[in-house]
What we know:
Strand content: under 5%
Helix content: 55-70%
Order of helices and strands: HH
Number of strands: 0
Structural class: mainly alpha
Amino acid sequence: MTDTSAGNGPDDSLVSRLRVVEQQPLGDRAAAYAVLHEELSRALEGSGTLADPRAGGAP
């Protein structure tokens, strides 16, 4: 498997957490995904803006 990420940004942290979750038994995995979902939802709701330039706008 090839790692296409560059640097140690937030994406790397998310990928690392997802790898840990994927290694857990199914029941634990579901709970871990629920926790991760809540954390990401709070972070997105608290940001107030879209940080991704691909989200739209002028060319």
